[in-house]
Amino acid sequence: MAAAPSSLASSHLSPIAAVSTPAVPHQLRIGCSRRRAQRIVAMAGSGKFFVGGNWKCNGTKDSISKLVSELNAATLETDVDVVVAPPFIYIDQVKNSLTGRIEVSAQNVWIGKGGAYTGEISAEQLVDIGCQWVILGHSERRHIIGENDEFIGKKAAYALSQNVKVIACIGELLEEREAGKTFDVCFRQMKAFADSISNWADVVIAYEPVWAIGTGKVATPEQAQEVHAAVRNWLKTNISPDVASSTRIIYGGSVNAANCAELAKKEDIDGFLVGGASLKGPDFATIINSVTAKKVAA
Ligand code: PEP
Q1: Where are the domains of the chain?
Q2: Distance 273 CA to ligand 1 centre (A)
Q3: Which pTM does this prediction carry?
Q4: pLDDT per residue over 178-187, tens digit each?
Q5: Which of the residues in the chain have pLDDT under 50?
Q6: What is the full DSSP assignment across 142-193?
Q7: What is the whole-number distance in angstroms between the Cα of residue 167 and the centre of ligand 1?
């Protein structure tokens, strides 16, 4: 695992590290047979492990065909929800060739009903081609394209109203972390989603520290856990204990086949949103199967 910058040591957040994890089950029985039972261990939430692959603006018809073949051939643990997000123009190709075991997401959606909005894609159109998910609030859209909290929250509300499920991204910039504002930023972004969302059943939260995205500087498991626990506690305080327990909080930022297992062991990490490593089928399969790091034989 690449070391996080020294300035990002987890002690940086120590004044707020005492945020308590909600009183939800730490051991959840997920399946059993007569001979052997498996339990999810170290899991503060009750939701199913979730792994998303964000392909960003990558791929060609040929490279995507190869990636889909690799994913179709992979052996994947059953107790994981898996979603991939191709560029818009390849969603139909992926839908028509990828195993139904893996669901498909868009990387963006228009804020409301379609119409005279040049270059945009509406939630109705995603539904029309069988695309069940959308990633919203990704740092590249916040910080490169310039989308703000309110705009993102409204997009989430409209997508959910059309039965498109939302991967809602939050996360701080390096300078915000170094200024001790990590929790302020994440909670502000959470509030913007909460102001627009009334039903959290179809929402997965992705905590993606911006300094870790595409940089190879993965957060340490402790750094990620600290923010995940705080976000879950925020949900408990501001929404409800049930939503805090059932909502998946996944980590994103330089996750790869080598570092995923250590991250997965953390009790508030319910899965991953993966960029670069999701473009390699076998690596993405390894990340999906890191759910096994949470399990022990009973
Ligand atoms: C992402 O784009 O959501 C992401 C986490 O990218 P990477 O895994 O490449 O850091």
Answers
A1: 43-297
A2: 7
A3: 0.87
A4: 999 999 999 9
A5: 1-38, 296-298
A6: IIII---HHHHHHHHHHHHHTT-EEEEEE---HHHHHTT-HHHHHHHHHHHH
A7: 13
